[in-house]
């Protein structure tokens, strides 16, 4: 079985909560889970599968702990890894930059030798602009706990089921 780590950055615990829910639904894989504020390069390098979550804090910006770690993240050799992204945002107040933080992680990863999994159809969401959209899909799981908390659990469940085949 592949080794999995969930790494999240969270300012008011929404992304942390989502990370914990994802970990719970992946319990059979015994994933590690870490706050990016306390992460080391080795946490990324020693796992086969990286599940990376960030909120968007400041229009279009990564969550602040992700932002602080980002220069190191850019230098990591993640060749051969499987990566899934999730992003928390507010599609009403920030409709022009919804989950852009996830877009920033994606932009960094898409030219690396990694296998990105877990895109979701964008038509399930209501927003104007997002750098985390490519074609008709979000590049990972988009969540809006501020306005659509009621959908969070079912979105996580569906996404976890969709990525499971890539985790064995
Ligand atoms: C100052 C500030 C700026 C924000 N900017 C954005 C944004 O540009 N796009 C977005 O989708 N959400 C934005 N948000 C909403 C947060 O991403 C959202 O509330 C998220 O759930 C916070 O997750 P966290 O508690 O894990 O950090 C912003 C929130 C704050 C407080």
What is the residue-averaged pLDDT? Answer: 97
Portion of residues in beta strands equals: 15-25%
DSSP strand count? 9
CATH class: Alpha Beta
CATH topology: Rossmann fold
Uncertain runs are: none
Strand-and-helix sequence, N→C? EHEHEHEHEEEEEH
DSSP helix count?
5
Ordered list of secondary-structure elements with their pairings:
Elements: E1 4-9, H1 14-25, E2 32-35, H2 41-45, E3 49-55, H3 64-75, E4 82-88, H4 100-109, E5 115-117, E6 120-121, E7 133-134, E8 137-138, E9 141-143, H5 149-163
Parallel strand pairs: 1-2, 1-3, 3-4, 4-5, 4-9
Antiparallel strand pairs: 6-8, 7-8
Helix pairs in contact: 1-5
Flavin mononucleotide binds at residues 10-15, 55-60, 63, 88-90, 94, 97-100, 145-146.
TL;DR of this structure?
The chain is an alpha/beta fold and 168 residues long. It contains five helices and nine strands, in the order βαβαβαβαβββββα.
């Amino acid at each position: 079985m592949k080794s999995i780590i969930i790494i999240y950055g969270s300012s008011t615990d929404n992304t942390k909560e989502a990370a914990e829910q994802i970990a719970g639904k992946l319990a059979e894989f015994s994933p590690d889970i870490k706050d990016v504020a306390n992460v080391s390069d080795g946490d990324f390098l020693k796992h086969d599968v990286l599940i990376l979550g960030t909120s968007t804090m400041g229009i279009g910006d990564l969550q602040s702990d992700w932002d602080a770690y980002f220069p190191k993240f850019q230098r990591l050799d993640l060749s051969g890894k499987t990566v899934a992204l999730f992003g928390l945002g507010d599609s009403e107040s920030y409709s022009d930059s919804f989950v852009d933080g996830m877009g920033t992680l994606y932009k960094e990863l898409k030219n690396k030798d990694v296998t990105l999994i877990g895109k979701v159809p964008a038509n399930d969401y209501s927003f104007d602009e997002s750098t985390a959209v490519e074609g008709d899909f979000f590049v990972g799981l988009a969540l809006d706990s501020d306005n659509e908390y009621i959908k969070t659990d079912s979105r996580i469940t569906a996404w976890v089921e969709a990525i499971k085949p890539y985790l064995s």
